[in-house]
Amino acid sequence: MLEHTIKKILNARIYDVAVETPIHAARQLSERLGNNILLKREDLQPVFSFKIRGAYNKIVQLTQAERERGVVTASAGNHAQGVALAAQFLGIRATIVMPKTTPEIKVNAVRARGAEVVLHGEAFPQALEHSLQLVEEKGYVYIHPYDDLDVIAGQGTVAMEILRQHQGDLHAIFVPCGGGGLLAGIAAYIKYLRPEIRVIGVEPKDSNCLQQALQADERVILPQVGLFADGVAVSQIGEHTFELCRHYVDDVVTVDNDEICAAIKDIYDDTRSITEPAGALAVAGIKKYVYKNGISGQTFVAIDSGANVNFDRLRYVAERAELGERREAIIAVTIPEQPGSFKRFCEALGTRQITEFNYRYHTNGQAHIFVGVQTHPDTDPRKALIASLQDQGFPVLDLTRNELAKLHIRHMVGGHADAVSNERVFRFEFPERPGALFNFLNQLGGRWNISMFHYRNHGAADARVLAALQVNESESAELEQTLATLGYPYWEETDNPAYQLFLA
User: If you ran DSSP here, which 8-state letter would residue 91 be given?
Assistant: First the structure.
């Protein structure tokens, strides 16, 4: 099977529509990891993904009779665009079945390539089933996204380019894996010509169909798959791809969503390009592999496989990147419910930068605050932060790996406080520099009880802060004077209807 696959790769026809993508050095990431990290930029293909290689290689080899029948596939993303472009170039009618939930940007991209889009079902399995019905009813030729030897051969041309472009030392190639087409093609070609080079697949932890198949020594069906890295959200590895991967893939690394987000940021820092979550898998895998094994001085290639990401997803990516880089700790801390408590807590943190601070008055005894703190995995790891706070008498609960806390609780801390009296609410803009928050607490937190506090560092020049103070009417003039001396822009929001409805 190996020699047969190699012949198909060598004879693959892709360059009518695909391009030979460059290899870029990731200089900043290389310096941080102590290894030479290279990026194979498949995000620079005409459809912003490697998928055009396999789709075109399959379709261009159809007989004239098959071309006249037209082609069909089911896809919600990159494969759909690859099939649409290939069919358009060859003048073949293409039908793409997509779930009704597919983002409009992807639907429009496929239609722009001249393909007919059929929206069917709420998820991919329903779309797949309908596409196979169309094969039976209308005689279309089905173009599989990964489990086809011609598709695998088209993806394998990525490896052919890597060995031609980089002829020096190369220790490992890291490849994203969903259905396994790209990984199988690369592994077969590399092991045939350069068997000393390790080929390592990278999967999301919640979509690790290859890893589980290798452990079971047979293909398995995952009961559910994570959808964040939608380009590799596959419940079962392909039949052909599994046979190649089980023999020629050296290892499989799994990464979580936070690690993927951190890798997206790493690629952006080095290339100023934004990849989709599946496209950043290989970089996330390299980082985990290096950290786990303590490797230095080696050369690794990461396949940057695609850049078809919805713009509105970037907010989530930015939020989780620091957690994935182990540069932020999310903790819950209990402090006394009394003036000066916040200030003492900030003193305990020392020079560490607070990224988020959520609190709402609850009882007269203790206050539970939700805090984000910048850390560094080498010089100031999360465990050291927690130990330091505990040594100073602050009960701490580590929420950094708590998905409920990160996805929901951090945005929901608050509510009404029936026992609060004389509360005045202010919105501030803090200059984003060390000491700004402590200055605020030093000026106000020791004089008046802070009954509500929400602080978030958004990475901009100014941080947005919402704070409520319990102020007696006789102290109003003193408060106004103190606020004026702070030097921070502020607006009183005590009569704001949103505050009155949800927090008062």
Answer: T
